[in-house]
Amino acid sequence: MSTHKRDRRNRAYNHGYRIGLAGRSIEQCPYDSILELRGFWLSGWREGRDHYLWGSAQINIQNV
pLDDT for 38-54, tens place per residue? Predict the structure, then answer.
């Protein structure tokens, strides 16, 4: 059975979103050396952080 690999950009965005939604720091970005993926991670972090700050933290993190 072959496995389907997920898009790295999508994974970076979703990981950043989960970190932002949990209220964690931007300093936890694991993509410091990979600038393309860092941009996607930061976009996800910003959106997750907005949801965290504006009270949308009731979103189920497991489904993201």
Answer: 999 999 999 999 998 88
Tell me the Cα Rg of the chain.
12
User: Which residue segment(s) compose the domain that 17 sits in?
Assistant: 8-63
* Euclidean distance between CA atoms 21 and 23, whole angstroms: 5
> What's the pTM value of the predicted model, to 2 decimals?
0.76
Assign residue 52 the CATH number of its domain: 1.10.10.620
Report which residue type is found at 23: G
The verdict on residue 3 lying in a domain is no
- For residue 2, being part of any structural domain is answered with no
Q: 51 in the Ramachandran plot: left (φ > 0), alpha (ψ -120 to 50) or beta?
A: alpha
* 26-39 b/e (C-beta count within 10 Å ≥ 16 → b): eeebebeeeeebbe
